Amino acid sequence: MPVALLLLLLLPGKILLLVPFAPTSLPWEPVCVCAAVCPGVAASTQVCSYQDVLEHLNLTADSSAFRLTRPVLDHRRPTVVQLDIILSAILAVTEKTQTFIPFVWTLMTWTNERISWDPERFCGIRELSVPKSLLWKPDLFIYEMIHKHETATTPYYFMSYNGNVYSEQVMKLVSTCQMDLHKFPFDTQRCNITVGSAIHCGECVCLHFSPLTLRRSRVFLLHSVKEMRFIPFSNSTRATQFSREVMLTQGDWDFLQLMVTSRNFSFKDQQWEQIIYTFTMKRRPLLHIINFLLPVLFFLFLDLASFFISDHRGEKLGFKVTVLLAMSVLLLILNDILPSTSNKTPLIATYCIVIFGLMLLSLLEAILVTYLVDLAPPESVGLKEDKQEEAKADAWDGEDRQTSSSSVCRVTTCETEQELLPMAEQVIGADSPESRVTLLILEELRKLQNAVKEQLSGREEGRKCLQWASRINKAFFIFYLAAVSLFLSFIFIEWMR
């Protein structure tokens, strides 16, 4: 029994129908029958292109209806723009110029009412990409932008069959940011990017004259037109989550939050809609602590250690001047970081100025103590230096020796004064060569006695100067240590609060 088999081969514009019959010499003999293409078969094999959709819409480079005016069929109907800005990188935050440079990813969608087609008529094509020059686009204006960077942008828009147009773009923004540097470098900054339309208002009040007159005066008619509305596509939680997922680099900052809010403001009886994106960032202070705060603190400890250097030598004064000059260099570095104007004085400026003032006060105290030490005779200074060694060497009979020595000095001085007067009277009464020689010797002894008295009185004055210098040094060291402790505790509490 012969078996009939059917094989269809589709060719462009034809159908080959192969029908096998009962074999005579071969197993079967194919017969080729050519037929015209059936309408049903043609629909299932239709080939469509994006150009077919563009020709259906009459969207060509010469067509200006899609790009010249706002894409609405009724001018009273607003164009709703859904916007999303995602932070992908924090490139720079400059405190001196108060600028914030982020790298953002902008997503925007709106409806073009002149675009519409049936996907079933075009092989299920639901969306396609067209050059940006063919379509109208919203005038996206960023109020804080101060400099426009040439960034590589996507040259196409995506549009769907229902008229929705999608735009994606990456942008490098240079915007202003009012920073609060009171707690620098432990600060948290909030920088805003305000997005809106520069031309199309949210609700515009139109004024025109009526052809009717009332008592020989024109009648003014008012009506409002809503042109463009900005609506955030994502809320604050979703925008923050997306930003953390696509974040490339943060530099010296930790990204905390991206808050999305809407705001309306009025100007000349017109209402404008804006979307405000607030970027919250916290500074990473480790670099500033190592490069600035710790060196200043080390210089302060060195200045405290300089109190243990001897006062009558020049090393102490020179050491303090060197530390003060090193502190001045750090203040110059701070001047390059902080802005010239600020609402509040930064705590780091207070930290440096107070420490610099304490070091300057310490230098003035060292100059005063050095002056008092220079007033004392060298013998008094030498006696002060060797005082501890002599006390240790003569500890066993120190008090007795000092008592006996002072007694001997007093007795010798008194006896000498009592003996010199009668001898001088006897010599003056006698008139002989021996008496003249004796008189000269007595005069020399009297001069020597006066010199010894002056030297002893000078030692007493030098000893008093050294005592005053020692008291001033001890009192100022206690005051200096207490002031440094209290100030450092206060400044660090304010920083961490």
Automatic annotation (TrEMBL):
Tell me which UniProt keywords the record has, alphabetically: Cell membrane, Disulfide bond, Glycoprotein, Ion channel, Ion transport, Ligand-gated ion channel, Membrane, Postsynaptic cell membrane, Receptor, Signal, Synapse, Transmembrane, Transmembrane helix, Transport
Q: Which reaction does it catalyse?
A: K(+)(in) = K(+)(out); Ca(2+)(in) = Ca(2+)(out); Na(+)(in) = Na(+)(out)
- Give residue ranges for domain Neurotransmitter-gated ion-channel transmembrane: 293-377
**Which SUPFAM superfamilies does the annotation name?**
Neurotransmitter-gated ion-channel transmembrane pore, Nicotinic receptor ligand binding domain-like
Which positions carry the signal peptide feature in this UniProt record? 1-17
Q: Does this entry carry the keyword Cytoplasm?
A: no
What is its membrane topology? Multi-pass membrane protein
- Extract the GO molecular function terms from the UniProt entry: extracellular ligand-gated monoatomic ion channel activity; transmembrane signaling receptor activity
What GO cellular-component annotations does this UniProt entry give? postsynaptic membrane
Question: What Pfam families does this protein map onto?
Answer: Neur_chan_LBD, Neur_chan_memb
Instruction: Supply the InterPro entries for this chain.
Output: Neur_chan_lig-bd (IPR006202), Neur_chan_lig-bd_sf (IPR036734), Neur_channel (IPR006201), Neuro-gated_channel_TM_sf (IPR036719), Neuro_actylchol_rec (IPR038050), Neurotrans-gated_channel_TM (IPR006029), Neurotransmitter_ion_chnl_CS (IPR018000)
Instruction: Domain (Neurotransmitter-gated ion-channel ligand-binding): give its ranges.
Output: 68-285
Question: Which coarse location class describes where this protein primarily resides?
Answer: membrane
Tell me where it resides: Postsynaptic cell membrane
**Residue ranges of the TM segments:** 286-305, 317-335, 347-373, 476-496
Q: Which family does it belong to?
A: Belongs to the ligand-gated ion channel (TC 1.A.9) family.
Function recorded in the entry: Forms serotonin (5-hydroxytryptamine/5-HT3)-activated cation-selective channel complexes, which when activated cause fast, depolarizing responses in neurons.
Protein name as it appears in the record: 5-hydroxytryptamine receptor 3A-like isoform X1
The species is Betta splendens (Siamese fighting fish)
